[in-house]
Amino acid sequence: MSKVTKDIEAPLAKVFRYIEQEKNNFVENLKNAVSIKSVSADPNLRFEVLKMMNWANNKLKILGAEVELCETGIQVMNNEKIELPPVLMGKLGNNTSKKTICLYGHLDVQPADISDGWSSEPFILTKRDDKLYGRGSSDDKGPVLGWMHAIEAYQQTGTELPVNLKFIFEGMEESGSIGLSELLSKRKDTFFSDVDYVCVSDSYWLGTEKPCLTYGLRGMCSFGVEIKGSSKDLHSGMYGGIVFEAMSDLIHILDKLVDHKGKILIPGIYNDVEPLSEKEKELFMKLDFNVDNHLTDIGVSKPLKETKEDLLINNWRKPSLSIHGIEGAFSGSGFKTVIPRKVIGKFSIRLVPNQDPKKVSDQVKSYINSIWNSRKSPNKLKIIQSNDGEIPWITDPFNSHFMAAHRATEIVYNSEPDYTICGGSIPITLTLEKITGKSVLLLPMGAGDDGAHSQDEKINLLNYIEGTKLMAAYLYEVSKI
Ligand SMILES: [Zn+2]
Q1: What is the predicted pLDDT for the residue at 122?
Q2: Is 173 a catalytic residue?
Q3: Bridging pattern class, strands 440-442 and 338-339
Q4: What element of type H or E holds 170?
């Protein structure tokens, strides 16, 4: 790793010292945030999401921000109408000679239960070996608190905040950010009119050692293939050998989507994939990424590609198709000789620049229909698409905004950042870019092994504290552009 040592300017050094001193309080704040079970996918926990939004609202108020909890309407879930949690929008400072930075983060989390295999209670922040375990510690409560603590550090040390800030903290990110882009679009000419740069902290380092800046995200489209065979579930003793079985039809289709080396078999799917530029290739070569460690972490022995570059190109710059599950199939333990009446196979495709979700969806549908026609089954096929899909995003990692974050990273970590693309999607990135027309940067706080949506999610104490310094340094550096 290339070592870079940068002098820390006096105001920033003061801010860093404060962050160091307040370490324990910052962990305590994270503990309080993690204890709120703000699982957006669970309607029974919606009140906790609301509690979380109010908690953050108060924190921002204490920092002197002008805040607003913006209503986003109603959501229909299992035929029931429930209220969406409000989006927290705020601003701090309106000095026209300063740059205005818009920060985005989310305060809702993925579901978690100790019975899923957690080593400690997911909603009780637990410290083991300088790692802070708890749902939301890394995704995304830690980073949201990081911003608040960075501001606090400026204020408490009497250091002038070098920029104006705007905040968008939402409570539905893990459930598709319902209502968010409509709300933000309406405020294009008001809230966003003076925004110069946008910073999203909701991604991770590639590995565990080296910081990075993220300049791209894959898009996605999700599908369900429904096959209906009979009006009720059947006993295989009585009906096996009599009926065309829905499950066999479904497995036949699913098996034709992707080969064992991960190549998608849908005709035309690779046609629009943007080739890698020479400059980008260089970034790939520099990446600090240990394939073996990455695989050991997840208990996998052999990767789909041999080299680091090929694997990352496969993950970041080529589409991938994953099969997730089958609804309606028997999945309990033991053996049950049932022939399911209706099954839905679920899969998704991660998209890369310049793929268009609409075009991909047409390709998927026509391919599945052609397989189905040659299958000649009397069963009923229906192809379901979960939504319109998410468009992939990529930006120029060499612009002045990225360079400011690059300098901030060097100041805090004494190392150049890697430039990464995130294999997942954060649709808000594209929305914010479209609405503001300004550069959007993804500034990760957590490490690649944080297990954002898994059991034992954690954030390293180092990432949490240095990451807070990084946020403070980013605001400092971006004010100089
Ligand atoms: Zn997140």
Answers
A1: 98
A2: yes
A3: unpaired
A4: strand 164-170
Q: Which two tokens stand for residue 424?
A: 């997942």
Alpha carbons 250 and 260: distance in angstroms, whole number:
18
Identify whether the C-beta of residue 214 lies closer than 8 Å to the C-beta of residue 454. Answer: no
To the nearest 5 percent, what fractions of the chain are helix, strand and coil? 35, 25, 40
Domain 10-217+392-478 has CATH 1.10.10.10: no
Q: Tell me how many helices (H) and strands (E) the chain has.
A: 14, 20
Lowest mean pLDDT across 151-160, 188-197, 297-306, 346-355:
297-306
**Percent of the chain clearing pLDDT 90 (strictly above):** 84
pLDDT higher than threshold 90 for residue 53 = yes
Residue 405 is predicted with a pLDDT of: 98
Smallest CA-to-CA distance from 415 within 210, 135, 113 is with 210
Q: Are 56 and 144 in contact (CB under 8 A)?
A: yes
Active-site position among 22, 48, 108, 249: 108
Distance 168 CA to ligand 1 centre (A): 14
Domains 10-217+392-478 and 219-274+317-385 belong to one CATH topology: no
The pLDDT assigned to 239 comes to 97
CA distances from 154 to 133, 356, 427, 465 (A): 28, 43, 31, 15
User: What does the DSSP assignment read for 24-72?
Assistant: HHHHHHHHHHHHS--BTT-GGGHHHHHHHHHHHHHHHHHTT-EEEEE--
Whether residue 200 contacts residue 424, with contact meaning beta carbons closer than 8 Å, is answered with no
- When the candidates are 3.10.20.30, 3.90.1150.10, 3.30.70.360, 1.20.120.530, the CATH number that belongs to 219-274+317-385 is 3.30.70.360
Could you say which of 140, 173, 390, 416 is catalytic?
A: 173
The DSSP H or E segment spanning 282 is: helix 278-286
- Nearest Cα residue to 99 out of 481, 473, 396, 407: 481
Q: What is the pLDDT of residues 418-469, one digit of tens each?
A: 999 987 778 899 999 999 999 999 999 999 889 988 999 999 999 999 999 9
- Is there a catalytic annotation at residue 249? no
> Could you tell me the distance, in angstroms and rounded to a whole number, from the CA of residue 109 to the centre of ligand 1?
8
423 in Cβ contact with 429 (< 8 Å): no
19-40 average pLDDT score: 98
Residue 470 C-alpha to ligand 1 middle, in angstroms? 19
* Distance of CA 452 from the midpoint of ligand 1 (Å): 8
CA dihedral (368, 373, 375, 377) positive or negative: positive
